[in-house]
Amino acid sequence: MIYLKSFKLSPHTVNNPNAYPYNVFRKISGEVFVFNNITVLYGNNGSGKSTLLNLIANKLDITGAEEFTNREYPLDYMWNCLYSLGENEGDGESDRIPPNSLYIKSEDILYEIKKIQQEAVLKEGYLYQHSKLGYTKENLEKLKQSSQMYKQIEIMKFANEKYSNGETSIQIFDEYLVPNGLYLLDEPETSLSPTNQIQLAEEINKLVRFFNCQFIIATHSPFMLGILDAKIYNLDAPLLRTFRWSELENVRFFYDFFKERKNEFE
Question: What's the pLDDT tens digit per position in 233-249?
């Protein structure tokens, strides 16, 4: 399903070479990104992957959009960006952005992991559950001081800690990525082992194929790049164009690294 068909960067420039985000996209000013069901934004640090995702999220008012700290230049830049939505639902397109669409950053996932592991959050959840069971305020206050609550919190802490950050990340993605949504993912491979990166990429392919989802993903993970059925834009290139995953610098680096050590595997 195509919800967001294209996004055009502002064609305007400014004299200040440090003006953000003009300086980030100076090489591709006014260029148009045309999106597939899955589109990958590839590039090294500072290439503009995260900035572009946040521009799209702000322009389309997608949940998770992060406010720009410098409000003058970014807002002016954003207003001059243009986008087009899908038009004909019969062709696998839609003329609206689904309300459950999300922009999910790697730091959001890390924050959720930290929150899950915080004892205060566990206590709050435990007390909330008991309030739903009909406990009065007086009973809840007694429960706060009880050995019963302490023991239960310790059990829950152990239950959370027995899962790695990567396993917890996969659980969070399972919860957030639901059918009929446009999802902007910024480096979702953070904290994930290669096996889990491949598992997430395969799940994304399924969500697109069977559940009417569209993804725009910023990543340089060779494992996800190799599994995702995606159109890939290389933001490190001097001109905006698409690449095969095997042409990308980061992927070639891994290939050469293991090729030079081939004898150690035989």
Answer: 999 998 999 999 999 99
Residues constituting the chain: 266
Look up residue 96 and give its two tokens: 């609206």
Q: Are 6 and 85 in contact (CB under 8 A)?
A: no
Per-domain residue ranges of the chain: 4-106+178-265, 111-161
Q: What is the dihedral of CA 237, 239, 241, 247, to 10 degrees?
A: -30
User: What is the pTM for the complete model shown?
Assistant: 0.79
* Residue 47 neighbours by CB distance under 10 Å: 20
Under DSSP, is residue 90 helix (H, G, I), strand (E, B) or coil? helix
Q: What is the CATH architecture of 4-106+178-265? A: 3-Layer(aba) Sandwich (3.40)
Q: In this structure, are residues 191 and 166 in contact, taking their beta carbons and an 8 Å threshold?
A: yes
* Per-residue pLDDT tens digits for 75-119: 888 999 999 998 776 778 888 999 999 998 876 665 555 555 555
